[in-house]
Structure formats: structure tokens, C-alpha cells
Amino acid sequence: MTHVDVLRTAIHALRGNWVRSALTSLGVIIGIAAVIVMVSVGQGTQAEIDNLVSGLGSQRLDISSAAQRGPGGARTGAGSRYTLYQGDADAIRNEIPEVQYVSGSLRGSTQVVFAENNWAASWQGVEPDYFAINAWELAEGDFFEPQDYGGSSNVVILGETVRRELFGDQPGIGESVRLGRALFTVVGVLEPKGQGGWGQDQDDIMMVPLETGRRRLLGSSALPPKAVMSIALTVAHADDLGYVQSEVEALLRQRHRIGPGEEDDFVVRNISEIVAARTATTRLMSLLLGAVATISLVVGGIGIMNIMLVSVTERIREIGLRMAVGAGPSAVRRQFLAEAMLISLIGGVIGIALGVVGTLVVGRLGALPVELNGKVIGLAAGFSIATGLFFGYYPARKASTLDPIEALRQ
Amino acid sequence: MSQPPVIEAHGLGKVYSPGTQAEVVALRNADLRIARGEFVAIMGPSGSGKSTLMNLIGCLDTPSSGSYLCDGIDVATLDAEELAALRRDKIGFVFQGFHLLPRMSALDNVAMPLVYSEVPPAERQELALQALDAVGLAERAAHRPNELSGGQQQRVAIARALINNPPIVLADEPTGALDSRTGAEILALFKRLRDGGHTVVLITHDPEVAAHADRIFMIHDGQLQEQVPGGGAS
Asked: Which residues 347-406 of chain A have a CB within 8 Å of chain B?
């Protein structure tokens, strides 16, 4: 019995009861389509998180002052003392070559006024690398000039929210605004970033050169001279992050004269812990989605097995006849296995088409991120073949082990 | 008879459910020698063991005792796969109920067994058409079984039985579902097959049908005896 014979016989048998065959295929169609959509959504979510993580900066370290420990051991909160200085940022820049960008920063909030409009907003005092570290782009105007960082230039770059509150439809470049008691010239407007990962409006911000911020916006007594509130840095290669973190810690301990066994007076954070937690969550979600899809495929497979068992019973005379005219057990088994596999393959092909369309629709609606690739489709195709084989084997075996005498007598 | 017999059985016995309460001795110690080109009838009432004997001759079953050589091949040692191949090559079955596949044309029904032999697909239609022609139904090749009369259906079944040119044609009550005139046509066809060199074994309960055969075996309570021409059992 050639493969063509097996196939032709199977097609003939399925066409003879095509409504039933189609309904049985439907189980597989739904299962395979579900596998494709679910896995695509899982992959899309994973990709989005990877993207988000690289936006947050998996190549980034944030250094801040450690909380103080009082005489009784009670610790004060973050920001209760300032142990980081501009010199620390410069030392990191000069002594650790793996560091790509580094910037100390100050921050505060103040009232900003233009004509009759005013707005309370946060400001950041920054060094030149700050914009690259935080992936800020300009929508309008220019970044600060090198000489602006000397401390005597009253220049400001506005976030989109601040610009809108002050200028409405106007670009605002070149205008003078009052921050606190000082007049500043608007030199640029930042490209909007929208809502941040924690729900805050990232565009409700103003940037000023670090030294300008220290002199014009911070109260003179608030901070020790030359202190910075935090230092942010990035490495060129994410692989270097752990190494750079230990280098930074060693450098700062040395600069701060912290002896062995003493606690750091600073904290270095990376976001890998957040990343790990998020990735684990996504993986769990993908797993659950995959499980749901697999269950629907198993239900489809059981449908195949059910119909094939009915078919074996219905066609017992045909099986007996075929055995009488020379079909051995293996030929009968192949015939029924071919029918089951044909049902699941046709279901698989239609299911793949439906799943791809469904995935594209979900992606287009924008409700969930999707990522469709050949791996998913290959997986679905493999699943449909495996379903036919697995659930078709038992009925086929049952048919092949029938006693031809009994079968003919029916 | 110089040729070896096509069907040769010695001390053939069949016991169902041996060693249990339900043990049934269906056939005991049967001897049978049928040569090529003979037309033989095996006759007996229902429950006599004639179906058991037919299943053994047709290689659908293996004996509990004794030996059976089907065209020289001992069936006792064969597994299910080898028995199927033996049936394909040696036996052409004709059934009382025709056993045609309803959704296939007469031609496809006749060609069906060729799927299991080594005949290339290209030759199958031609062979099937020749077989249909041999039973006088070439012009009905495209018809489905339900478009044919009972006699025509049985002739299609006979064409199917002959498609692999087996030495033995085994017919189980082939006229049982037909009127007497059509039955006579079928019996005439069997005589032609005998004349063409086939060994025809006819299983029946009907003495009038059995009378068409050259030799008649009687089976009763599992005992097989050849009926001597012109009188009672030997």
C-alpha cells in the first residue's frame, strides 16, 4: 500500500462524512489558533518588557547617599544627609573606563512664571551626560552650551507639560521665565516621554545646568558645598554592569575613607532586581496562556479520538472486508491513522491561518502587545501533527487488531 | 491427480475457548484434499461447523489442531500480517451480502484489493475493467452498488475476488440473497471459473445449490464427510 493509496483512501473516507470531519477539525482549528494567539501575546508582552527594561536602562546604575545611623542605631530616611560630591562623579568619569556616561544631579521644585501663567514644577540640575543617560531628546531648541555649565548661565530646558502650561501653543524658545526669584532663558523643549513606569508625568520637569541649580534654585544652606544629591551612570555594555558596580563601590569607599567592615555611606542601585521580577511575571503569564491553549488543543484531540472510535465501529464491515482481501493490521492502522492526521493537519492549516489573522487583529487593536514569528507557527504545526498522531493512534490500533471474522459478521 | 492439491488439510480441528466452561469443539479431525480446478461444495446446517471450516480454508483463522496447507503453505506458523498477505494472493472471497463499499463505483470496488498488492496504480483500472468484463459488467463500471441489481452486485463481488487471480475462490452462501434465476446465473459463473482453472469452494446449507458442485462435503456437529456420488455419506 503506497503512501498515495493511504492518503487517497483517507480523503475518500473523510469526504464521505465531510460535515463530521469538518466539525472534528474545528476542535483542532480552535486549539491551534488559540496556541498561536496566546503564544504571540506572551512573546509580545515579553518583548515589550525587554524594551521597557532597556528604556529604564539595564546598563544603568544610580548612586545616592545612604541613610544616616543615629547614636542608638536608629536610621534616618533617604536624603537625610548628603555624602556624594561632584568630585565623586568626576572620579567615576575619569577612573572607570567602562563607564559611558555619568552625571551628578540636584533636584527640587519651584514655581515657574511666564507672564500671567504660573506652574509648580520639579527641576533637575544636571551635567551634560544626564540627557543621554535618561534618553531625553529635544523637540525644540538646543541643549546647554558647555559654558552654560559654569554656574553663571540662567538657562532652562522645559519639559513638554511645563511648556504647555506656560506658553500654550507657543514654542517658548528664547522667552524669559522666572524660576523662584531668578529669570531664566528657555533654550530648549524636551521631546515628550509621556507617563512613566510608575504613573508619573515624566514631562512635568525642567532641566537647568547643575551649578546654576545649586546657586539659583537651592537654598544656600540646604547642601554642603559641591555636594550632589545623586549620581547616575551608564555602561556601554550591559555585561559590564556588575563589574562597574563593584568598581564604583570600591572607588567611593576609598574616596570616602570607609575602612574595612564599616558600612557604606552611599547606595548603588541597579534595576536588575525589578527586571528579574517583571520577567518572572511575564514568564508565568506566557506559561498560563500556553496552558490554556494546550488544553483547548487536547480537547480538540479528544474530539478526533472520539470520532475515530465511532468511525471504526461504523466501518467495521469495511475493515473486515479489507482484511479479507489482504489488508494486514499495519495497512489498516495506517489508514485510520492517516484519517486522524488528515483531520488534525487540515485543522492545523486552517487554525494557523486563523491564528495569524487573530494575532494581527489583536495587535492592530492595540489591546495587547503581540509578536508573531516562524517559531510560533512551527510550534503550532508540530502540535497539530502530534495531536493527530497521539489521539489517532488508539482508534487506529483498535481497528487493526479487529478479528476479521468478527468484523465480517457484523 | 498429478498436481499437488490446492487445499490440503489433515486432522483439522478447532476448539473455541479451550479449557473453560464455554469450550466449544467446532471442528474435529477434518481431512480435505481439493485439487486445482475443482468445484466443491461444503454443506451443512447452521451451527454444524461449516463457518469454522470456511474461516480456516480462507486463512481468516488458524486451526487448534491438525495442519492446513493453503496452496502448499502451512498457515499454522503465520502471523496476522502474513495471513493477510496469504489471503490476498491465494483466496478470493465471495459473501452472501456482497460486501461492496457503497460509496465506491463498481470499478473502484473491484480494484480495491490491488491497493494491498504490489500492482502499480497505473495498471489497476485496466485490471479491474478486465475483471468486470469477465463477469459481463464492463459497461456498468461507473455505477455504484446501489444502482445495480443483486445479481449484478454479486458479479461485481466475484470480479473483485478474481482481481488478484487467486487459485481459490471461497464463496459463502453466494446465492443466499438472490432469487433462484439470478442464483443460477451466479452458479453458472462459478462453473466457468472452475473451467478457467480456479478452485471453487462453495459453502451452503442448500442441497440444490450444492448439487451444482463436482464434489460435496457434508459437515455435521463438526464432523466432515464426503458425500459419495449417487447416494448417502461414505
From this structure: 404-405
